[in-house]
Design brief:
- This protein is an alpha/beta fold.
- 30% of the residues lie in helices and 14% in strands.
- The protein contains twelve helices and twelve strands.
- α10 links the parallel β9 and β10.
- α2 runs parallel beside α12 and α6 crosses α8.
- The longest helix is centred in the C-terminal third of the chain and has 19 residues.
- It is elongated and about 70 Å long.
- It starts with a strand and ends in a 32-residue tail after the last helix.
Amino acid sequence: MKRIQLVVLDDYEGQLAAAPAMARMRDLAEVTIFDRPVEPSDLPDLEKTHVLMALRERTRLDEKFLDACSRLELVLQTGGHAYHLDRAAATERGIVVALGRRVTRSQVVVPELVFAFMLGLVRKIYPLTAKMSKGEWPQAMGGCLAGRTLGILGCGRIGRPVAQLAAALGMNVTAWDRGSGNETGDPPVRRLPLDDLLAGADIVSIHLRLSDESRGLLDRKRLAKMKPTALLINTSRGAIVDEDALINALRENRIAGAGLDVFAVEPLSASSPLRTLPNVLLTPHIGWQVDEVLREFVEIAADQLDGWLKGQLPANEVLNPEAAGVPRERMGGITTATAAK
C-alpha cells in the first residue's frame, strides 16, 4: 500500500519531533522533519509531499510555495489561524487546510504571559534586575494590580481567561468586542464602547483576531484616549496597533508603558526604537511557545491525519472545506459539515 509522505516544517527547537504523539504520526505516514527554514535544496522532498504540518506562521505558504508541492493535498496548520497561507491558491489546487483550533493550552499560557507583562511593568522588575546586576541596590516604588481597571479588547477564548485571572487579583474588568451590553457571570465583565474603555482603563490588553476591521484599530487618535498612566499589553497581533503611533506615545510619555509579544513585522527590526525604550517589555512572539502547547499541536495533528486517511476529517476543523470538492487524486477526505471560522 502506498505510504503517505508528510513533512513537518520549522521544528527549530526539536519539540515537535520529541512530542509523544509524533510516534503516532510516524505510524500513519513517512515523516520528514525540517529543523530549519526551508531551502531550495528541499525541493525534492516538497515535490513528493502529500501532507505538510506547519508550525504556526514560520513559513509563508504562498502560491509559489504551493506550486512546489505538486502532490500536496493536506496542510495540518497548528494553531487557530493561517494568516501566512494563501487560502485561494490552496483551494484552487484542492489542498485542504486543517486548523488546530482545538488547542486548549494556549488559553492558559497566553494569559500567563499577559500577567507577566503587567507585573513586570507595574513592579519595574526588568529595570530593577538590570541595576541589581550592576551591583546596585536601587530604591523603587512600584504599584499593585488590585483595584486597577483592566480593559480587554476581545473577550473570547484568550480574553476570557485573562478576565478570570484579573478578577482573582482584585482588578475591575471591562471589555470591548463585537458584543454589547453588560455581562454577568464568573467573573463579571462590564462591556463598554471602545473609546470609553480606552479612557477608563489602567491597563489595556489586546485579544482580537487580525481582520480588516481590527487592523490598525489602535491608531494615534485612539492611543491618545488612554490615560498617561496606562499600560498597553499586546499578545495578539502586532498589526492591530499603529506601531509608529505607539512608539511616539511611549517616547512622549503619553502612556506609561507597554508589554509587547507581537509586532507589525516579525522579526522585529534590530533598529526598532521599541528595543531601547525604557518603558517597554519585549518578547519575540513566545505567547504560544511552550512545551505543553507544542505537544498538543502534535496530538491534534495526529488526530486530524488519522481522520483524513479514514475520510473522516471533521469539516468544522477545516479552513476551506470547498477544496475537498476540487477534482484530484487524494489519499483522504473530510466529513460534511460547516467550515472553521
